[in-house]
Specification:
single chain; 82 residues; mainly alpha; 68% helix; 0% strand; elongated
Length: 82
């Protein structure tokens, strides 16, 4: 190419290194998004209003079910690790 000539086509990535950096950044952002999504599904805030004794027994039942679910997930994770 002569000094007076200009490039007619320019690419979004000037070289391979910048393209690889961009792809890695995209994968890191996707990974962070998936991590936050799974974390938010694990840590769910639930409010149970108790206004009467029947509500209290319902709340107790709900807490027992949630505890059993968490214990099951912990057991599954321990089995996966070992």
């Amino acid at each position: 190419m002569k000094k007076e000539e200009e490039e007619l086509v320019s690419t979004a990535f000037s070289n391979t290194r910048s393209m690889i950096t961009f792809i890695i950044a995209v994968f890191v952002l996707l990974g962070l998004f998936l991590l936050m999504k799974s974390y938010s599904s694990l840590v769910e805030e639930r409010t149970i209003e108790v206004k009467s004794t029947s509500d209290l027994s319902f709340a107790k039942q709900q807490l027992q079910e949630q505890t059993q679910k968490v214990q099951q997930e912990i057991g599954d994770l321990r089995a996966l690790i070992t």
